[in-house]
Design a protein that fits this description.
The protein has one domain: Glycerol-3-phosphate (1)-acyltransferase (3-Layer(aba) Sandwich). Helix content is 40%, strand content 17%. It has eight helices and nine strands.
């Protein structure tokens, strides 16, 4: 199974690469002011859906993402590894925020840059204003931006405190926040436990290629995506206190405080 999946990925990935380059060229010639919105819809979403299908990831959606299809939302969620981006990228057209190290990975770095990924260097605080400006610009272009505010992926035991600095971007763009909680339920028809979670989760000092090779052998993954009510940033001041309050409101929502009856309504994909 691993070799077949890898072969399919290696065959189709260059086709997506070529399509992304062509779309970039067309958007440049046309002078489109919403280039990244188009990229997220045509390339990012379809590629994520392709990889999700290849890996046989079954997604149960609880709640409704009102307005996210039209773009311009900052989607915030808990983070257990790169599969999170595949799952959410298949549901929403999004631009990713990723650690700067990914930019240097062969092929993957070039691909993520082509797809509009915003690279963050958490060791250099002086670059945060540039990151905020880039995020705000893409939100203004009506692209959804996916943010993992914990700042790192985890083993899922607990939700880490949110880093509030990048919440300045949705505040500047007055972009709504869409909080989402990811919960991985089953791996190969077995409940996810501490014994098998590392087949799905990627965190700490795990090596990417080795983990992905093992992931290709997983026959089925089941995950629940709980969509919470949108948080309107217009209710918050565009300053340090506003960023912290918005970050805390997002944290509380993702942590599961105040789940509504509407959120418990489920649909299956």
């Amino acid at each position: 199974m691993r070799l077949v999946r890898l072969a399919v990925l290696l065959i189709f990935w260059p086709l997506f690469f070529a399509a992304a380059l062509l779309l970039h060229s067309l958007l440049f010639v046309s002078g489109s002011r919403r280039r990244w919105r188009s990229m997220s819809r045509v390339i990012n979403r379809n590629f994520a859906a392709f990889v999700r299908t290849l890996l046989n990831i079954k997604v149960r959606v609880e709640g409704e993402a009102k307005g996210a299809e039209s773009g311009g939302h900052c989607i915030v969620t808990n983070h257990m590894g790169y599969i999170d981006g595949i799952v959410l990228g298949s549901l929403f057209p999004i631009i990713y925020v990723s650690k700067k190290e990914v930019r240097g990975w062969p092929w993957i770095g070039q691909w993520t840059a082509l797809c509009g990924t915003i690279f963050i260097d958490r060791q250099r605080k002086e670059k945060i204003p540039l990151l905020v400006a880039e995020m705000a610009e893409k939100l203004d272009q009506k692209a959804n931006v996916l943010l993992f505010p914990e700042g790192t992926s985890t083993n899922g035991d607990r939700l880490l405190p949110f880093q509030s600095a990048l919440f300045a971007a949705p505040l500047r763009a007055r972009a709504p926040i869409l909080p989402v909680t990811l919960s991985y339920r089953n791996v190969d028809h077995q409940p996810l436990t501490t014994a098998n979670r590392d087949r799905v989760y990627w965190y700490g000092d795990m090596e990417f290629l080795g983990h992905f090779w093992e992931l290709l052998a997983v026959r089925r993954i089941e995950v629940t995506v709980q969509i919470h009510p949108t948080i309107e940033t217009s209710r918050y001041r565009n300053d340090s206190s506003g960023r912290k309050a918005l970050s805390q409101a997002s944290y509380d929502s993702i942590a599961g405080k105040g789940k509504t009856a509407q959120e418990r309504q489920a649909s299956f994909y």
